[in-house]
């Protein structure tokens, strides 16, 4: 049995004057991310690994969440291929995870993160808002079986739901 938490990065500044990859979280994005992280902490969620896009806003989201959950920043693995990745590219980043790891948090971008959530849950997640998170339980023993195993939506929450 494995669990995956799919999270969209927090609200970032507009990118008019800078490259999209370098946009920072705005104060509102930091607060909402912390709010969701506290919700995860209440549920006693402790990912054994955090995969995050290398975009600035995504890494900032990962750092806030790891801090609130009391998880070492050493567990954050920066994944270049998660930046604006499709759901298939995200799956490709999950497959190599060590099978001894049973609980991961993946922080990424729309539309790929929402598409993967919809696929894994067999429910229309549509467009995840910033800082929202989807938790999925997987009846698998190997991460390479993620597409074939039985999957169940545990929860889907947005900052506005908390």
The CATH superfamily is identified as: Phosphoglycerate mutase-like
Q: How are the strands ordered across the major sheet?
A: 3-2-4-1-5-6
Question: How is the main sheet built?
Answer: 6 strands, mixed
Measured between the Cα atoms of the first and last residue, the distance is 27 Å
Number of strands: 6
Spans where pLDDT lies below 50 across 5 or more residues = none
Amount of helix: 25-40%
SSE class: alpha/beta
- Tell me what the CATH architecture is: 3-Layer(aba) Sandwich
Helices, by number, come to 4
Reconstruct the topology from this structure:
Elements: E1 2-8, H1 27-42, E2 49-53, H2 56-69, E3 76-79, H3 87-94, E4 103-108, H4 112-121, E5 133-139, E6 150-157
Parallel strand pairs: 1-4, 2-3, 2-4
Antiparallel strand pairs: 1-5, 5-6
Helix pairs in contact: 1-2, 3-4
Provide an overview of this structure.
It is globular and about 45 Å long. With 162 residues, it is of the alpha/beta class. A six-stranded mixed sheet has the order 3-2-4-1-5-6, with helices on both faces. It has a single domain, classed as Rossmann fold, CATH 3.40.50. It contains four helices and six strands; from the N terminus they run E-H-E-H-E-H-E-H-E-E. The mean pLDDT is 95. Helix 2 links the parallel strand 2 and strand 3. It starts with a strand and ends in a 5-residue tail after the last strand. It has helices at 27-42, 56-69, 87-94, 112-121, and strands spanning 2-8, 49-53, 76-79, 103-108, 133-139, 150-157.
